[in-house]
């Protein structure tokens, strides 16, 4: 996961597409600095003359310790051209900040969107959360802890969630086995407290009123991501939750699951836009 930042940056500078039909509003402050979280900004990508469009709030990956919203403008531009308003938010990163601050910031980004996205032509009743890798983990936390969000006008807090090769769906089990080995590097974000590992593992907060969820995973992703998702889905089945869909992308590895958004004719657009349309 640590290679994500470098690969996306290289692709960002390689991209030369023009997006004259997209209005970009950048460096919007959505948090007030306090003892728990710092001041952070987000960017909004919207089609010009947008009106009542669905919204995706996206969180990037980077092992919970790297990344920045600017290098994901390819995602915002391309989805905005397909009539989805995209909000891309920076959030606190390890090792200076831990998971509680990251979750609080991510929730604040979604609540900001509920309060303000109509100003950009978005529908506050059709907000989807999404993310790749560590960002997918944050999106999943929001989805399973939806009661911590502000209510929308239609009493639905989320329209759905889209997890792209999401890490950490069951970080508790993973760190119990690996915190002294390969998992030690994640303690910068998750701390060395098993209670925190569980509190920030989405699997343990699944309820039968979960909003629709789409999980997109590469066939050749990291074993830790695949294993975590399998345990997550076992819990979904045990609880009788029906509206969770998993789609596996043949031969795809972890980083290409997000970089494929550079190519507008790819399968991922069909899956993501289809899910948004259905919900």
Automatic annotation (TrEMBL):
InterPro entries: AB_hydrolase_fold (IPR029058), BD-FAE-like_dom (IPR049492), Carboxylesterase_B_AS (IPR019826), GDXG_lipolytic_enzyme (IPR050300)
Annotated keywords: Hydrolase, Signal
Keyword hit for Hydrolase: yes
Signal peptide coordinates: 1-20
GO MF annotation list: hydrolase activity
Keyword Signal attributed: yes
BD-FAE-like domain ranges (all copies): 42-220
Pfam families: BD-FAE
The protein's name in its UniProt record: Acetyl esterase/lipase
Phylogenetic classification of the source organism: Bacteria, Pseudomonadati, Bacteroidota, Cytophagia, Cytophagales
């Amino acid at each position: 996961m640590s290679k994500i930042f470098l690969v996306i940056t290289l692709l960002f500078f390689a991209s030369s597409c023009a997006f004259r039909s997209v209005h970009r509003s950048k460096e919007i402050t959505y948090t007030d600095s306090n003892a728990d979280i710092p001041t952070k900004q987000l960017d909004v990508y919207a089609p010009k003359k947008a009106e009542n469009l669905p919204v995706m709030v996206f969180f990037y990956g980077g092992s919970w310790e790297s990344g920045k919203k600017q290098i994901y403008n390819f995602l915002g531009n391309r989805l905005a051209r397909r009539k989805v308003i995209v909000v891309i938010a920076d959030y606190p990163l390890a090792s200076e900040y831990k998971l509680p601050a990251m979750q609080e910031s991510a929730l604040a980004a979604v609540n900001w969107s509920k309060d303000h996205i109509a100003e950009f032509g978005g529908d506050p009743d059709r907000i989807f959360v999404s993310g790749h890798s560590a960002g997918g983990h944050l999106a999943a936390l929001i989805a399973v802890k939806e009661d911590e969000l502000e209510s929308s006008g239609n009493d639905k807090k989320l329209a759905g969630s889209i997890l792209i090769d999401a890490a950490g769906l069951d970080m508790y089990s993973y760190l119990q086995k690996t915190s002294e080995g390969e998992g030690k590097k994640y303690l910068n974000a998750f701390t060395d407290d098993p209670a925190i590992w569980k509190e920030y593992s989405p699997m343990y907060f699944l309820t039968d009123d979960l909003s629709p969820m789409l999980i997109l995973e590469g066939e050749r992703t990291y074993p830790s991501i695949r294993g975590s998702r399998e345990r997550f889905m076992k819990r979904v089945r045990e609880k009788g939750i029906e509206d969770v869909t998993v789609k596996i992308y043949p031969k795809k590895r972890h980083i290409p699951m997000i970089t494929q958004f550079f190519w507008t004719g790819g399968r991922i657009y069909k899956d993501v836009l289809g899910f948004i349309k259905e919900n």
